[in-house]
């Protein structure tokens, strides 16, 4: 009996994971990262000079990637004063989600640590009315006259405190050492490699874009181009919903952090190549053009680790197999800061993210960070993507779904299983799939691992299915009816127990049955039932990290003490860096 063409339902969000999980399928959460980043003026940190102390006087004596062993990036998160007006429950839930997201990113990305306190630069075009441009003068390129309207430095409308900023000075004469202090040198932020300014509120963009849950932008980079400061704005109204989901918000934070740390079309041209380093202190050199069009004109990231990881994932020897970038709502040749959904469905960096248990911090995303030249990444910490595994170089094209050459796609509008087999699904599409259809989790009671769904599933009136932690979704047309022939068109997704007996080898158990072998890629009949169960090949018992979330993973059950405006929670992993969330004064 042939398996009918796959069909999937979907509940998806754009860019940031939806905090609401009971939305009508088809309603997307919008990511406006590229739009927001384009509005932000970036400042590059300057090495220390006679104008001020600065931490870079220590760091730039030798190349930091040669002279220092990379360590987990230390991210300090500062919450704006305006965000402090949140009710206690809302504040606690968002702080826990932010802290968990920051911890996760810190455990994945390592950098040569900054020596001394992190001190951001001021924008000379803001505080200075004119600059001495005579190349031979002692004060060449220094400020000659102050802008009387200068007030402060901002990043995405968040005011950066003076104590985080270097000083700025005015040199009234082109050759005189005499100077006046416009702003004194700040103390900087200790033990920090990246400053994250967090604002929670109902901003203009939140009000104007009801489908936006959060947005972010980086605003300062170091002398090698690595971002060192950014703002993440979380729309406050999204925190008050009764169906708020903790893990969805954690993934939202991770997604936005990945953008501002380097996964950005604004930063792709500044990725560096450190592969030819010697220990002589030479600087990393800019990579050749990282993003360029493929044969069809769609932009891809062509960098060494990305190509290697994608070749391994698709089992292809194609030498120029770059990471495909999203092309929806993108002007020709302009690129995007998201992966193409057809190629990398389920990745944390696609523009559309599904229900949180189906989202993966995938190998290709971590490979991209490895290729920035700024980070050391243990690719072994990536989560298995599963989507497209072993499908060849043509996977991810519209033709691969239209020609039905891959079982990952479906047609029609029927019921089945999400490709991770944790959820029942319905065959649907979204704008990012370009007409292709995949099985997306059902709106209600899709999770096979939730035992309580056994009383919520109207399609299992005869109690064929079994829900629980070890249950997975199987295509099946099993029925207890014995007086009528089985209709093969009734195949759909059903939840049965499973247990692994080896790699890609497992047994299943339906309601009232014994454990029976389910041959991967074949079918099995169950004594006492009509119909068959289709046994998925290379989807079960191969990926140890594809599991249901833990019981408390989506409930913010732990609390963080508040002491003098500082939020600090001990980490369970002692090798991870500590994260301190401080009140912006």
UniProtKB/TrEMBL annotation:
The Gene Ontology biological process terms listed for this entry are:
cell adhesion; proteolysis
Alphabetized, the UniProt keywords read: Hydrolase, Metal-binding, Metalloprotease, Protease, Signal, Zinc
A Gene Ontology term for the protein's cellular component? membrane
List compositional bias (Polar residues) regions by residue number. 557-567
Signal peptide region: 1-29
Record has Zinc as a keyword: yes
Instruction: State whether keyword Cytoplasm applies.
Output: no
The cofactor note from the UniProt entry for this protein is: Binds 1 zinc ion per subunit.
Q: Which residues bind Zn(2+)?
A: 255, 259, 338
Region annotation (Disordered) maps to 546-567
Where in the sequence is the active site?
256
Co-factor requirement: Zn(2+)
- Name the protein family: Belongs to the peptidase M8 family.
* Name of the featured protein: Leishmanolysin-like peptidase
Q: Which organism's genome codes for this protein?
A: Cynoglossus semilaevis
């Amino acid at each position: 009996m042939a398996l009918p063409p796959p069909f999937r339902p979907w509940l998806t969000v754009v860019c940031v994971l939806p905090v609401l999980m009971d939305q009508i399928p088809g309603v997307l959460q919008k990511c406006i990262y590229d739009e927001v980043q384009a509005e932000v003026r970036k400042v590059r940190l300057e090495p220390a000079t006679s104008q001020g102390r600065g931490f870079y006087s220590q760091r730039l004596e030798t190349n930091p990637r040669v002279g220092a062993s990379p360590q987990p990036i230390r991210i300090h998160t500062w919450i704006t004063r305006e965000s402090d007006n949140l009710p206690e429950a809302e504040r606690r839930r968002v702080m826990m989600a932010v802290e968990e997201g920051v911890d996760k990113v810190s455990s994945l990305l390592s950098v040569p640590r900054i020596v001394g306190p992190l001190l951001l630069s001021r924008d000379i075009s803001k505080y200075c009315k004119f600059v001495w441009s005579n190349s031979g003068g002692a004060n060449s390129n220094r400020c000659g006259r102050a802008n009387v309207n200068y007030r402060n430095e901002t990043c995405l409308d968040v005011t950066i405190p003076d104590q985080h900023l270097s000083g700025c000075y005015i040199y009234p004469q082109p050759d005189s050492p005499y100077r006046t202090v416009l702003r004194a040198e700040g103390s900087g932020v200790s033990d920090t490699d990246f400053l994250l300014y967090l604002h929670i509120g109902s901003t203009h963009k939140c009000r104007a874009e009801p489908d936006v849950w959060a947005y972010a932008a980086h605003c300062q980079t170091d002398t090698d181009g690595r971002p060192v400061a950014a703002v993440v704005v979380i729309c406050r109204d999204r925190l008050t919903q009764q169906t708020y989901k903790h893990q969805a918000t954690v993934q939202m934070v991770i997604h936005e952090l990945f953008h501002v740390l380097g996964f950005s079309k604004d930063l792709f041209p500044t990725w560096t190549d450190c592969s030819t380093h010697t220990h002589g202190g030479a600087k990393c050199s800019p990579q050749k053009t990282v993003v360029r069009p493929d044969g069809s004109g769609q932009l891809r990231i062509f960098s060494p680790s990305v190509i290697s990881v994608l070749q391994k994932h698709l089992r292809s020897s194609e030498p120029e197999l770059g990471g495909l970038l999203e092309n929806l709502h993108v002007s020709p040749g302009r690129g995007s800061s998201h992966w193409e959904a057809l190629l990398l469905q389920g990745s944390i960096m696609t523009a559309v993210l599904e229900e949180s248990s189906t989202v993966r911090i995938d190998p290709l995303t971590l490979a991209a960070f490895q290729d920035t030249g700024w980070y050391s990444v243990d690719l072994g910490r990536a989560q298995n993507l599963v989507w497209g595994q072993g499908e060849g170089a043509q996977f991810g094209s519209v033709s691969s779904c239209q020609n039905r050459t891959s079982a990952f796609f479906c047609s029609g509008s029927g019921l089945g299983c999400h490709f991770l087999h944790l959820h029942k699904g319905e065959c649907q599409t979204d704008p990012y799939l370009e007409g292709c259809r995949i099985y997306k989790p059902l709106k209600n009671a899709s999770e096979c691992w939730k035992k309580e769904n056994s009383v919520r599933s109207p399609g299992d009136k005869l109690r064929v299915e079994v829900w629980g932690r070890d249950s997975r979704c199987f295509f099946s047309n099993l029925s207890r009816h014995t007086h009528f022939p089985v209709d093969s068109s009734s195949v759909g997704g059903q939840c049965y127990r499973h247990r692994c007996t080896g790699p890609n080898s497992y047994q299943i158990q339906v309601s009232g049955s014994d454990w029976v072998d389910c041959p991967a890629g074949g079918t099995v009949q169950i004594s006492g039932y009509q119909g068959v169960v289709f046994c998925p090949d290379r989807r079960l018992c191969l990926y140890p990290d594809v599991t249901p979330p833990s019981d408390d993973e989506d409930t913010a059950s732990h609390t963080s003490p508040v002491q003098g405006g500082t939020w600090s929670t001990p980490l369970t992993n002692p090798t991870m860096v500590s994260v301190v969330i401080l009140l912006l004064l």
